[in-house]
Write a structure and sequence with these properties.
single chain; about 500 residues; alpha/beta; six-stranded parallel beta sheet; five-stranded parallel beta sheet; 19 strands; globular
Length: about 500
């Protein structure tokens, strides 16, 4: 494979357009030109549009999409690129930036944010008025409203004048409403959809993803592209080739044998071994992700690791919103007890301080200032203050005091600091829940803070990559979830399971 790259430079500054909910894709670093293999793949896709492309994880979907955008930009064409997650948007924008493609020629958004933008601008066409700040629990209404907007004659002309082509990534995760919207878009623009049915893991919360064979192939004929292990080039190419083979094993239902020939580290399942594997990676060069199955398992493991790994939060921040709602209601005993509970969910080493006796007294509206808890007297006093003044400012004080208790280790940094920021914003009269919504919407745009050691679930890290990955309980995952977990690491993969054979079809 050729890997030579030609370079150029730019010093364009980034900007955010609040009206269009889009980010100017610009760059200050050295830009690169897609190599010959990528350009050939991009030309093939461009010539085949409308079409669909299936590629395994880590084999270049993002690279090819960016190369399509680069080719279109060089021809003076403008591309609309849609995907599902903010992590996906960030990855696509970064790759577009690296290839020298600016906002003048590409717009990259999530399907949800693009839909909200259309509904917000054209409420009469959408038959639905959306607030300026999105309420993502209404996402399904945004999709159906956006379909109505896109289907109108006037907007069809606007879109045809604004874009020359559209690309949709991670199409296997589209539900029926999103699929209908993209079909409507396909009546206006040539569309290419990219995806991998084996990574379809958003089949929860009432979402029923499309079926690739029936919903996609008939409308957008398949275009074959070579599967090259881009994610592992220069890192661990043997691992990349092995994972491509493993994909076929998962599809056919064959067991995955983790013997000496597999380029992974296998560890027998045991709580002590899980902790040992995570602690063993604390000095690893590069980023590390520990991958659990269920939210409570992830939080429990993070607590046991004493804050070494940070929990990745869902962007919607449901638990943050739940706590914010308690504060907004302002019931003193509830605010006091829920503040203590929230702190316990975010920080290790607080169990001895916020024990059952403390929680029961607070819930009953009784002061805990007189109780003796080593190093936590100030925190108990500030929790007791909430029984008289449950305002956001006093909740902020109580959480700060709890976070300052000696030996306390925050392991849910995102949730903790989002709530602290929301409480500060709320001191000016804004509801805490509204402030949380504002902050989480901002996170959708700016992306997550990068941390060296992360613990998460496959559904939140799909599309992301790390230097090292530890699958904490490989036996617990269904085939698609397991495949996503297996393909996150560039350099090393550690698999913890009951035996050195995985049978992902036996669930």
């Amino acid at each position: 494979m050729r890997s030579s790259l030609s370079t150029g430079t730019s010093s364009r500054a980034p900007s955010w357009d609040t009206a269009s909910q889009s980010c100017t894709v610009s760059f200050t670093e050295t830009a690169i030109t897609p190599n010959d293999d990528l350009l050939a793949a991009a030309r093939k896709v461009r010539q085949a549009m409308p079409c669909s492309v299936q590629l395994p994880a880590g084999t270049g979907k993002t690279h090819v999409i960016a190369a399509v955008g680069s080719l279109a930009a060089n021809a003076g064409d403008r591309t609309l690129v849609l995907t599902h997650t903010n992590a996906g948007v960030d990855a696509l924008r970064r790759r577009m930036t690296a290839f020298g493609v600016t906002q003048r020629h590409v717009r990259v958004e999530t399907i949800a944010s693009w839909s909200h933008s259309l509904v917000n601008r054209y409420p009469q066409l959408a038959q639905f008025s959306a607030p300026q700040l999105p309420n993502w629990s209404d996402s399904l209404r945004y999709y159906t409203g956006a379909e109505l907007v896109v289907s109108s004659r006037a907007i069809r002309r606007v879109l045809a004048a604004s874009y020359d082509l559209a690309v949709v990534d991670e199409y296997q995760d589209c539900g029926a409403d999103q699929h209908a919207l993209i079909r409507a878009l396909g009546e206006i623009l040539p569309v290419a959809v990219f995806g991998d049915p084996l990574q379809s893991i958003f089949n929860f919360g009432g979402n029923v993803p499309i079926t690739w064979g029936t919903d996609v192939a008939g409308r957008w004929p398949n275009t074959e592209l070579p599967a090259r292990p881009w994610r592992w080039l220069g890192h661990n190419e043997v691992l990349g080739e092995w994972l491509i083979k493993v994909r076929n094993d998962i599809i056919t239902g064959a067991p995955i044998v983790l013997d000496e020939s597999a380029p992974v580290t296998w560890i027998a399942a045991d709580p002590a071994n899980r902790a040992r594997a995570c602690f063993g990676h604390r000095t690893a060069v590069g980023s590390v992700v520990a991958i659990g199955d269920l939210p409570h398992d992830v939080a429990s493991q993070a607590r046991n690791l004493g804050g070494l790994y940070t929990v990745m939060e869902e962007i919607e921040g449901k638990e943050m919103m739940k706590f914010a709602a308690f504060v907004d209601k302002g019931d003193p005993a509830t605010v006091a007890s829920e503040t203590a509970k929230f702190a316990k969910t975010c920080a290790a080493k607080l169990a001895d301080v916020l024990d059952t006796a403390v929680l029961k007294k607070l819930a009953a509206g009784q002061s805990v200032a007189h109780l003796k808890r080593q190093g936590a007297q100030d925190a108990l006093v500030r929790l007791s203050v909430l029984l008289d003044d449950p305002s956001p400012a006093r909740v902020h004080d109580a959480l700060n005091a709890l976070g300052s208790v000696p030996t306390t280790k925050i392991f849910r940094h995102d949730a903790w600091y989002t709530i602290l920021s929301a409480l500060r914003i709320a001191t000016s009269g804004t509801d805490v829940a509204a402030a949380v919504t504002q902050l989480r919407n901002r996170a959708r745009v700016t992306g997550r803070r990068t941390t060296q050691h992360v613990i998460s679930r496959p559904v939140l890290i799909k599309g992301l990559e790390y230097d090292h990955a530890i699958i904490l309980d490989a036996d617990a995952h269904h085939p698609t979830s397991l495949y996503v977990a297996l393909t996150r690491a560039r350099r090393s993969l550690t698999i913890i399971s009951r035996e050195p054979v995985l049978r992902p079809d036996a669930k």
